[in-house]
Design goal:
By secondary structure, the chain is an all-alpha fold. The radius of gyration is 19 Å and the shape is globular.
Length: about 270
């Protein structure tokens, strides 16, 4: 029995994500209700407060000194993977609207939430994951419109509000992360004793976001042809396979330390 409980604790995040996908599609009403509230921003803020609490000073020093990992991660996230992903997305044998959606997904910087959580789960360099998340999303405010205009110019003008994006970035990432780091000054010993509980709280907050998104999209997902949906899933897996091979090969050739390599591969 203890081994089963241990398995569920270790695999809490992937099992939780699979569970909320089914729950959100089959019983969307609770998730749709929560989605109408500012729940998503609260969840993201909780994730980064937890990250700030658990972020050790030596991990921060290691992240800032890992300039090769940061440089490659930024280049891969902001330029290489968007070009590769969009090119492959437009080759998928599905409707043009699905191709466009997949291409747009590939052009975005690393997600605000899952990259850090997955790096922590894989025992990678969490501080480097945080640095790449903040760096690429901040720089991406200015670079993504140009990348979209170049890769997706055929669909017309692309408009993004840089001021709004920067404001949300500060409120949902930088401020909560700073609060967590400040609180750690007074609660460091208690945090170290409660790392598993704080990590679980962060994972619950992360899982709540796709739960709401699946709930809100349940009607549209039901209207999608099963074959098209399967092709989209396979196409996404193929694209991510290219990403993994590219970044694993690059980080291995640079002889990065294993925790740094995990952070770059998972985020890029």
């Amino acid at each position: 029995m203890s081994s089963v409980i241990g398995f569920f604790k270790r695999q809490f995040l992937p099992l939780g994500l699979l569970t909320v996908a089914f729950v959100g599609i089959l019983r969307p009403e609770p998730g749709m209700f929560m989605g109408r509230l500012p729940t998503q921003y609260v969840a993201v803020s909780i994730i980064f407060v937890c990250s700030g609490l658990m972020l050790r000073t030596d991990e921060m020093h290691a992240a800032f000194s890992a300039w090769r990992a940061t440089a490659w991660g930024g280049l891969s996230i902001l330029l290489l993977t968007p070009v590769i992903g969009a090119t492959l997305a437009f080759q998928a044998p599905v409707e043009a609207s699905f191709q466009l959606g997949l291409a747009l997904f590939c052009c975005m910087p690393t997600t605000l939430t899952s990259g850090v959580a997955l790096t922590s789960q894989a025992r990678g360099n969490t501080a480097l994951a945080l640095l790449l998340t903040v760096l690429t999303n901040t720089v991406g405010i200015f670079t993504v419109p140009f990348v979209l205009a170049h890769l997706l110019g055929a669909i017309g003008q692309v408009e993004l509000s840089g001021a709004d994006l920067l404001q949300k970035l500060c409120l949902t990432i930088l401020l909560p992360l700073s609060i967590g780091r400040y609180l750690r000054r007074f609660l460091a010993d208690r945090v170290e004793r409660s790392r598993s509980r704080i990590s679980t709280l962060s994972n619950v907050a992360l899982i709540s976001i796709p739960w709401m998104k699946f709930s809100e999209s349940s009607t549209r997902l039901a209207e999608v042809n099963a074959a098209s949906l399967a092709i989209l899933v396979v196409s996404g897996l193929v694209i991510h396979g290219f990403y993994l091979l590219l970044n694993y090969g690059a980080t291995r050739s640079m002889r990065l330390a294993t925790p740094e390599r995990k952070a770059v591969v998972l985020l890029a």
